[in-house]
Amino acid sequence: MSVFFNNLTSMLRLPNALSWQKPGWADLLLRQIEGWLDLILRRLDSPLVILSIAFAVRLLWIMTVPITEAPDEGAHYWVISFIRDRMSLPTLNDLFKDPGAAYYGPLPPLGYLPSLVVCFFTPGLETAMAARIGNAMAGLATVSAAMFVARKLFPYDRQLALCLPLVVLFHPQLVFVNSYTNNDSTTCAISSWLIALTCLVLREGWQTRYSLGIGVLTGFLLLGKYSGYPILLALFVGLLLGAWVHQLKAKRLMISSLLIAGVSAALSGWWFLRNYCQFPGDVFGLKTMLDLHARAYTEPKALYHFPAVDNANWRNTVLMSFWGLFGNMNRLLPRQIYAVYSLFMLVSMVSIASAFIPIFLPRPTVTNMMRQFVDNNRSEVAVWTFLIVCVVSSFVGLIGASVSINATGSPQGRYLFPSELASIALLIGGLSSLGRRTGPLAVWAFVGFNAWSSFYSWLFLLHLYGLRTRIF
């Protein structure tokens, strides 16, 4: 991305707003850091090493977080225990027998599949621990998708290609979500691979096998947590961008779209038909879920009103719960950590925006130059546009949840995790565009800070909870 935006700014003859000339000591520091990075790259440039580290990190968190300090884990565990014991999905009567624990029963079950698989194949292991390990395995699928996407986004820069999976690997809130039983981790993994496959299409062109793969993943996403649904809008935009990049004829685009829709409907349609019959007229199961929750607790009331973003509490909660807000959303990190994350995000956004400033300047030649640049870099423009749409779609979905379904609690940053890869890729891309010297320093500063934050967060929770080998 740094090459892409640097080319854009140089074409329009406007220097990057955050690039500046460094004194001599910066060159020496950069060479020293590059030497360290080359050493790290030689050690980490292996999917097996990265995945092993990712699992070890998540295992430490699994053995630290108690079930009482993991949001709704008891309710998620109820669904897994029911399916494991009875080898069937819960009915309406089953749910209303224990509404305080069963309110996730009406929702799609695929998010629990990794936990169920590990439970079935490890009969000697405590079920709750096995369920958590299965959830962590879904987290590894997200990390593997990050490695794949990074190679497509940064094919000529090994360091940037390594940074994306490293940030995803250590992202404190993502690690926390991966360490206890839920349906968020699997949904994040599915959407991450859907993003990866769409990027592949934008880079390499349409093929029937890619359409089949997208159809399968879309079907799986429909059977995951509803927080993944906003990615479907981004997928639609991605299909249109793919047709534009590779000059796809309308007939071919229609066939590919019908193939994707047909495969996804064949995989997921049965669930919504079952819900319609099992929970009279409640196709998505959301009304039944809220009814169960209201019976056990209180009637949900709207905490926020549209557009929600005008509420300072909403904005702060989203920021904190995206990077690191643990326990039952009551274990905060020091505010300085959130401030540093915010600074990295701000600098990255300014860096990206600075590349587009010339577009709005009153110069008659800009429009033609911009059109020529886009035509010569269609694939690059399409990929990064698609990633931006992914982030925006998830954010809009979070706003929608906050003012409607999520009225029972505060906004949760994990609802943005279906677009995790897009968010982190844009953040890294923006930092890398600061300049030849500043860019690498900024990126690795962010990677290092994120890893340190993850370790600090675990020590913070370890001090509170200690280590355990059993969940119950």
Detailed description of the structure:
The chain is an all-alpha fold and 472 residues long. The longest helix is centred in the middle third of the chain and has 29 residues. A two-stranded antiparallel ribbon has the order 1-2. It has 20 helices and two strands. Helix 7 runs antiparallel to helix 8, helix 10 packs antiparallel against helix 11 and helix 16 crosses helix 19. It is globular, with a radius of gyration of 23 Å.
Q: Main beta sheet: strand number and arrangement?
A: 2 strands, antiparallel
Number of helical stretches of at least 4 residues:
20
Low-confidence stretches: 10-22
Shape summary = globular
Describe, in short, the structure shown.
Helix content is 69%, strand content 1%. With 472 residues, the protein is mainly α.
Task: Give the helices and strands, then pairings.
Layout: H1 2-11, H2 24-44, H3 47-62, H4 73-86, H5 92-97, H6 113-121, H7 127-153, H8 158-170, H9 172-178, H10 184-204, H11 208-222, H12 230-245, H13 250-278, H14 286-296, H15 312-323, E1 325-326, E2 331-332, H16 335-356, H17 364-376, H18 378-402, H19 420-432, H20 438-465
Antiparallel strand pairs: 1-2
